[in-house]
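Re: Re: token formats

Sure, here are both.
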Amino acid sequence: MNARITQATLHDESNEHHGKQVDIRIKDGIVTEIAPSLKATKGEELINFENLMVSPGWFDSSISIGEPGFEERETIKNGLIVAAKSGFTAVAVNPNTYPVIDTNSGVSFLKNKAAGSAVSLYPIGALTRKSEGVDLAELYDMKQAGAIAFGDYQHAVSNPNLLKIALQYTQGFDGLVLSFPQENDLVMKGMANEGETAIKLGLKGIPALAEHLQIARDLYILEYTGGKLHIPTVSTAQSVKLIKEAKAKGLDVTCSVAIANLFYTDQELEEFDTRYKLLPPLRAEEDRKALVAGVKDGSIDMVTSDHNPLDIEQKKLEFDHAKFGTIAQEATLGALLTLVSERKAVQLLTAGALRFTGKKATITLNEPANLTLFTSKGTSTFTKEAILAKSKNAAFLGAKLKGSVYGIIANNQFIAS
């Protein structure tokens, strides 16, 4: 594609034009010029939006799609369109498909199905076979096929020796291990955050202690073994503190937070609305505030949508029987901008690229354009019309959001929202 982006505020702290209004020329998908003003050239598309901001392309470190096996929830083709129109140029896809992505052929299937898309799909291979937590999966083979990390989505590694071996083994090929922060024996059939709201509603509780114990255990193991650990979707104040202390020790650990846990608390459950049945569960206000503080001070490395499409048969049920999860990509920017500045939002939405792929998200001359186009101006209410996913299980329906996504430029394509 050949295009000229005009009058855009650049958000890239590694670029000399950071914070300035510039024009950007793209030729054959390559960034060729960045300047305060550029003259038009023949045959190029003009891209201009009101209050336009441009940043390196965003990376979502946790999304679920469904295909293969659960295409009724979401297909790879539509899932990547949802990501593009939500501002993401790259996504890490969880292995919770049928069959589970636990072999190199499963990884290759995802990569091949995503070929030609504007959005780059990066598979997360299962850490254990069938995500059952018994035996390690074929980690090295999956790495060779294109897996960027290994974890069992929303399944904790109960066996500490298994995590120890995984962290030791993956050091041989610089692998990244994910460990879901939940001590299963403390959760059992828990449905919601253990606290006042759960007691009032008669729901079985998921104690914050279950998250703290698992994270503390995992960090002790990491300190013993070395290796690279990522803790996805933390949800409590104590979790933030534990990870902050581990980083101060020099441990190679990162963590993410789901946008819903930054935005909502367990008080949303008072109507037994299953759209708010999430894992980790929505916590108390003091936890939510600690999470917001954590993203602001860098204790939490990245924000993920934790986008998880589920069909109506899995969500429109009694609260006890409904599955955990919500779609959230379409609302991620708007929700995040109600909590942090656009500068911090860009940091949180691009940080995953370096951790998961080893490549820092930047805007560099003579390199392929990988850009997200957005604005932090304006407010809106998230409605059903804003849902792009096949599934409609959106916790953010009715939420007051800030800013909007205009589209992405990536892999030599421009996708407008």
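Second one below.
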Amino acid sequence: MRRFSLCHQKLLYLKHCGLLRLHYGLMITKLTNKVLEGKILIKNEALDICSLPNSRLYELMAAASAIRQHYRSDFIDLCSIVNAKSGGCSEDCSFCAQSYESKADIERYPLKSYKEIGAAAMSAKKNGARRFCLVTGGKKVLDGELIKLSDMLKHISAERLLPCATLGLLNEDSLRLLKDSGLNRYHHNIETSERFFPQVCHTHTFKDKVKTIEAAKSTGLSLCSGGIFGLGETWEDRVEMAFFLRDIEADSIPINFLTPVAGTKMADVPPLDPIVALKIISLYRFILPEREIRICGGRMQTLGEFNSFIYMAGADGLLIGNYLTTTGRSPALDTRFIEQTGLRYK
């Protein structure tokens, strides 16, 4: 709080002197050049970005887009997921419709069949996805389920899709089995900062998640890890989370926005302002210039008409189709827009 108090006093002084507009412009230019020169931002610089008013959003996005183009070129990485096992989770994550405490009206079913998973994978490939992720609800998959999933991964890999999985808190032995079956990337979100995590979940800890992340990295798997925004976290939490993801060298950073679902603890949480959502994407591009910034759940619900700005804000990855318990956007609309903007996805 002291950091923002001092910053606020500085901005009031600059405004009084008529220099505020120049200050913001010079700050964005300075930080953009620093990132383009291959240097990393320190936390105070990241917090300076957070302090930018909404009126400077387009300038910030233009800078983030230049950083994306410099480090990530014009390729947009597309992935798709299948909710392979829904409901019955023993965890109490306050945002999740599959939590044991949730009263949300969702489908609940055991692990899907090979045929169902295969059909979903082929649909994802047809829609332009390069990656396909198997997702199961629950703290972790059972041993018998793990064997079935490892067989599914072999078939997905044979279809020239890059297999990904989200199977909860797994150890190194389980992850190595999956890797030997063709798994390319393991997805395990940290959700938010370590400070704020206890406000989101009580049945497992931030450190439990870190153990799974370390196990995935030790097996040589690519790591996909990010979180959800709009849970009530502060800008400091958002910066702390980004710096943690930078430190663990996550390859892909999923950015989700809370979609309040009736029956969950966060059913009444107001959605993020779309301007704030775009600012978060740009912030992460500045902090994580070389990593995939992938926009996932809550995209249309939060951004609405601003959805078309995600690439200008620095994103270079997208989850297409439906999500776990909420609907997404037509993949055809997403791929058409990518092509129309001069970007490419294959």
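Residues 2-71 form one domain. Residues 169 and 208 are 7 Å apart (CA to CA).
- S.
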